[in-house]
Automatic annotation (TrEMBL):
<dbReference type="InterPro" id="IPR011257">
    <property type="entry name" value="DNA_glycosylase"/>
</dbReference>
<keyword id="KW-0234">DNA repair</keyword>
<dbReference type="InterPro" id="IPR003265">
    <property type="entry name" value="HhH-GPD_domain"/>
</dbReference>
<dbReference type="InterPro" id="IPR051912">
    <property type="entry name" value="Alkylbase_DNA_Glycosylase/TA"/>
</dbReference>
<keyword id="KW-0227">DNA damage</keyword>
<feature type="domain" description="HhH-GPD">
    <location>
        <begin position="120"/>
        <end position="275"/>
    </location>
</feature>
<protein>
    <recommendedName>
        <fullName>DNA-3-methyladenine glycosylase II</fullName>
        <ecNumber>3.2.2.21</ecNumber>
    </recommendedName>
</protein>
């Protein structure tokens, strides 16, 4: 079992940095029990990583991809994040940044696992997406190496072999399924997006637009400017935090223009500070495609 210790040369909030990798409660590939664990597909094969914070960062890894995950630990925890270049243009953002000095943008260096999860989250409630992620992971993900009972997210090859009834049992509608199949068919080429830092490469796949590519870029290469345009909540929350009223996507991008090329970081600070508009309308009822 390979392991390593690493001393970050900056304040580090481990939970805030790795939290975006968790896809809802019951995520079969993520655990916060006794540290932060996650299972992943790597260029070397499946691997599991556990990260704990003591005086330093302690990490242990299992599986064929374990050493690859350990080698990427500094980048995963934000060592390549250009945080020092960020300038706050609103007092509320400046205060959020002051209160969260350990909030950095990490980079997994991989695309498929993140793209898979983000496609499932397209145009549905979080509850729907997380349920489908759990079902697909538990049914078709391989057991993760190591002592924690996790599942490695299903590979593109595994998903391409699923039958119609298997997709249906996991609650996936036709539109997201088609996009997922489109992505799985060219997944080996899409990994280059992390090296090239290219959202445009991801958007060449039918069904993948700016929202999905941004969600991947934020986590895969720690893109500080990848704003989730098209999200149901983000623009409204940013508008409310900065102006006291919700705005649409165009209004949000206008407000965030001074932060370019670190617009996503400004959004992350607002989210971390819990600055969300009051919700008065009833919540959407999630759909269960397994019953259709």
């Amino acid at each position: 079992m390979p392991s390593r210790s690493w001393t970050p040369p900056f304040p580090l909030d481990l939970g805030a940095v790795l939290g975006p990798l968790r896809r809802g409660p019951g995520d079969p590939s993520f655990s916060a029990e006794g540290g932060i664990w996650f299972a992943a597909n790597t260029p070397c094969g499946p691997g599991t990583l556990r990260v704990r914070r003591t005086d330093v960062v302690e990490a242990e890894a299992w599986g064929e991809g374990g050493q690859w995950l350990l080698d990427g630990l500094p980048a995963l925890l934000g060592a390549d994040d250009p945080l020092d270049e960020f300038v706050a243009h609103h007092p509320i953002v400046a205060e959020a940044a002051r209160r969260r000095p350990g909030l950095r943008l990490g980079a997994t260096g991989r695309v498929w696992d993140l793209l898979f999860a983000s496609i499932l989250e397209q145009k549905v409630t979080g509850k729907e997406a997380f349920r489908t992620w759990r079902e697909l992971g538990r049914r078709f993900g391989e057991p993760a190496p190591g002592p924690m009972p996790l599942k490695v997210p299903p590979t593109p090859q595994r998903l391409l072999g699923l039958q119609d009834w298997e997709w249906h049992q996991c609650g996936l509608d036709g539109a997201r399924r088609r996009t997922l199949v489109n992505a799985a068919q060219v997944a080996h080429r899409l990994e280059k997006a992390a090296e090239m830092r290219s959202r445009e490469l991801l958007e060449k796949v039918p069904g993948i637009g700016v929202w999905t590519s941004a969600e991947v870029a934020q986590r895969s290469w720690g893109d500080p400017d990848a704003v989730s345009v098209g999200d149901y909540h983000v623009a409204k929350n940013v508008g409310w935090a900065l102006t006291g009223k919700p705005v649409d996507d165009d209004g949000m991008m206008e407000l965030l223009e001074p932060y370019k090329p670190q617009r996503h970081r400004a959004v992350r600070y607002l989210e971390a500070a819990g600055l969300q508009r009051p919700r008065r309308a009833p919540r959407f009822s999630p759909r269960d495609y397994r019953k259709l």
